[in-house]
Every structure is written in structure tokens, then in C-alpha cells.
Design brief:
Layout lengths: L1 H5 L10 H8 L2 H28 L6 H21 L3 H25 L11 E2 L4 E2 L1 H19 L8 H17 L4 H17 L4 H21 L1 H11 L8 H12 L11 H4 L8 H32 L5 H25 L18 H16 L8 H7 L2
Antiparallel strand pairs: 1-2
Helix pairs in contact: 3-4, 3-13, 4-15, 5-6, 6-7, 6-8, 6-14, 6-15, 7-8, 8-14, 9-10, 11-13, 13-14, 14-15
Amino acid sequence: MTEMVYGSMPSSVREPILSRWWRTVDKWSLIAILVLCAIGLLLGFAASVPLAERNGLDPFYYVQRQMFFGGLAMVAMVVVSMMSPDLVRRLGVMGFCLFFLALLMLPMFGTDFGKGAVRWFSLGFASFQPSEFLKPGFIIVAAWLIAASGDINGPPGKLMSFGLAITVVLLLALQPDFGQALLVLFGWATIYFVGGAPIPLLLTILGLTGAAGIGAYNVSEHFARRINGFLSPDVDPRSQLGYATNAIQEGGFFGVGIGEGQVKWTLPDAHTDFIIAVAAEEYGLMLVLVIIALYTTVVVRSLFRLTRERDPFVRLAGTGLACIFGVQAMINMGVAVRLLPAKGMTLPFVSYGGSSVIAAGITVGMLLALTRSRPQGNMSDVFRRSR
């Protein structure tokens, strides 16, 4: 009777989460990541078999582990990419706090696996590197602080983020892990620049970073050895860089053929830090260009979509995540072709690894979540109304 008099209450029909996610997510970036994972598995069949043979394991032991960790990374990426920006911020803050504590405990409970740098926790059946998970969390926290500094009566977020960045960089340098330290500092500088930092201040920070590098060269034998190896005009053919350089030259444009490469039998880190050398030798420059194009697609499309975003936190966090993702790939490939000193940094989604590939999945998941299409006006509309 009530419905006959007043009419029925309109029911709100909510779009299912999965269909809303598929409609709003950047599909081209998602496809590029899936292709990178497929290429990583393809290269894993070539690069990890010699390692398994040397360790007396099943030939495809590391391939199976890469499939397992890659699957976990894809699940993490999709789940995180379904989150709202507020949930991404909470996840980033909690993750940063957790792995910052792990970084503090690393000197006491960590291990170096004979590589001269205490970067990992050994769990017996696996190991993980806290700095890999710390990076996306740090970017989220730094973006949150810098965005909050622009609010009326907001906190001194820029100064707080700078102090946090210096603390993280020092902890990483003490391991020593100068590659991750520089990547964290670069991510912070990118966010600070986009957030409106004055150029003279950034140049001052750049100068201080150079001075710190000179100091590390004089103090750290590990750092000095890598810089000297990079600056030396002659490359030891029996070093990792020597093997990688020779493999890239042998590959040419189209490669020596599937399974015909030799660098995987002599290069200890062929399945991780120097996986691009395996790709260049067996598949040639063509596959390397495809890999570069896939990373470029993710970074450029993400930055383009962020230009239409009105939320300062989303713009800053998304820009930082996109830049550290792209720069990590650039550093890995730059080391292989001797454009940069050796850093011990993996190629996201392509190199073998557990913590590195899962952390990359979380990083890109956050990026996809922040670049999803949301109902909002364009930035041009805001500028037009302010006139």
C-alpha cells in the first residue's frame, strides 16, 4: 500500500568490482607487463637450466620457481590494482613501516650469500630482500607527505620526506647497496620536483650526492672496485661484464638461435642481473628492442594518464612509482652494455627472483590502481574555472 502511494525506493545498482576494474584499468600497460612475464619465462628456460645443472637440481627447477613467484606477483598486481587511492596509501604506509623495521634488523639477522653485501633474510626454503618491498612503500609515504605539505596548516611534509629519504639511503648504503640507495633517492627527487621543488635546491642535493659518492669511493672497497671496473678501458673477458659484452656482440640483430647461446653456461648471474645478455645473444637486438618498448609503454602511458589526475597525492605517488620502475629497468640494461657501473639490480618481471618479482608486482599494482580512470574533471577544467 505504501509503495502504491509514495512509490518504490530507487535501488542503487553497483557495478561489480571485476567489471569496473577492467573498464577503468590501463589495459595496454597490463598487457605489456604480462608480455614481460612471458619473456621472463622464455629466457628462464635458457638461462636457469645451466644453474640447476651446476647445483645438481632438476633442469627446470628454477623455471618452476619462477612460474610460482611470477604467478604470485600477477595475483598481487591484480589485487592491488583494484584498490582505491586511499587503500593504496594505507598499504604503502603499513608496508613501509614493516620493511623499514626489517631493514633495521638486517645487520643482525641478515645474510650476504657470499656476495659481500648483507641484503637478504634467509628463510631456509627461500630468501627475501627487504629493500625491494621498501621502495614502493617509501614512494607512497614520500608522496603523501609532500602532498600534505600543500594543505592549509599542513605539516612540513617536504622536510620530513627529505629526512626519511636520507635515513633510508644511509641504511641501504651501509649494507652496502648503493644501487637501491640511488634508486630511492631518485624516486624522492622526482616526487619533490613534481611537487614544486626549486631547481637550485635539487642541484644542491645533486652536488651533495656526488660528494657522498666520492666519499663512498674512498671508504668502501666494494664500491671502489665496481667504479674502477667500470672506468677501466679494458674489460676482463673472464668477468661478468666481459661475458655479457661478448654475448651481446655475438647476438647481433637476430641472435645465434634458441638454445645456442653460451653465456648462460659461464655467467653466474645470467638468470638474474644479466638476463638481458642471454636475450641479446640468443634472440638478438630485436628482442631487446621489444623489451625496451614494453617498459617504455608502461612508463609513458602511466605518466600520460597521471597528467589528467587532480589529486596531488595520486599524481606524485604515480609519477614516483612509474619512474623507479622504468629507471630500474634502464639501470639493469645499462650495466649489461657497460653504460653504468655494476649495481646488482634485477630486470623487473624478466629476471629470476622471488622477492624482486613479487615486489615488482606490488609496485605495478599500485601504479595501475593510481592510473585507473575515475570520475573527475580534467585539469584543464580546473585552470579554466580559476581564471
